[in-house]
Amino acid sequence: MQLFICPFCGPRAETEFHFGGDAGNLRPEGDVDAMAWSNYLYFRDNSRGAVKEIWMHLPCREVFAMERDTVTHEVHATHALTGEERP
Ligand SMILES: [Zn+2]
């Protein structure tokens, strides 16, 4: 079992976390067409290697950013969200 580090609670089992999407995939603002919504909701990058993602720690309900490697599964960093990362 892999451990993820919640920036608010510390190391916890990965089963306590929920994936929230790619960091920087921001919700479209204003009057946007269906294609923009479709791209936001259904089309994701499936990057190999270093990625930055949004995760939620279910027990504390806090949302945070995680930098990890999709190949090695190594977690490089976790931190509270900045304004640019908020979904
Ligand atoms: Zn937590």
UniProtKB/TrEMBL annotation:
One of its GO terms (biological process) is tetrahydrofolate metabolic process. It comes from the Bacteria. The lineage of its organism: Bacteria, Pseudomonadati, Pseudomonadota, Alphaproteobacteria, Hyphomicrobiales. Coiled coil: none annotated. This is Sarcosine oxidase subunit delta. InterPro entries: SoxD (IPR006279), SoxD_sf (IPR038561). GO terms for molecular function: sarcosine oxidase activity.
